[in-house]
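Retro notes, structure queue

What went well: the backlog is down to a handful. What didn't: a couple of records were mislabeled last round, so from now on we paste the full input next to the output in the thread. Example, using Threonylcarbamoyl-AMP synthase from Streptomyces bohaiensis:
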Amino acid sequence: MAKYFDVHPENPQPRTMTTVAESLRAGAVIAYPTDSCYALGCRMGNSEGLDRIRTIRRLDDRHHFTLVCQDFAQLGRLVQIDNTVFRAIRSATPGSYTFILPATKEVPRRLLHPKKKTVGVRLPDHVVVRALLAELGEPLVSSTLLLPDEEEPLTQGWEIQDRLDHVVDAVIDSGEDCGTEPTTVVDFSEGGAEIVRRGAGDVSRFE
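Corresponding output:
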């Protein structure tokens, strides 16, 4: 049975963030709100957790997970980024964007694009997520909480608790509807900005 955490949207309780972080370190898969849809997440090195997320969403091995980071210091250990790209990303973050970049050796091989050796990273603009990442001290491997055969992601914590009670370990509910529009995806792996998916983030700055 999943633990249900009702947290304040602007001042998330530190004790709750510590409890969730400890569960992630112990191998948990969680459902949590972001600035762009609810997401499923686990630690980067949690291979079993990745498999559980794939099972919940019925994903194949070609699905690309996103690494959700606390700040640029953390992001910089995971991807290769030059000054021009750094400035472009910094001007748009934190926000509802996923950026595809060449990965460093810090990223497990199973998370990389098999041919390009790239990975998606993001810096969310959501108080609860940022508090959790600060407590955890490492990125979360994440995937939008879109269930099989459904057109839109789940948006309410109580509904997620009800439907995924036996397949996730924890649900964080900040009392907000975080929407159904996924992130805007921008690929910088070839140097320039290529918009892969138009989503919640404003694309005009990258066009």
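Agreed that this is the format going forward. Reviewer comment attached to the example: The longest helix spans residues 14-25.
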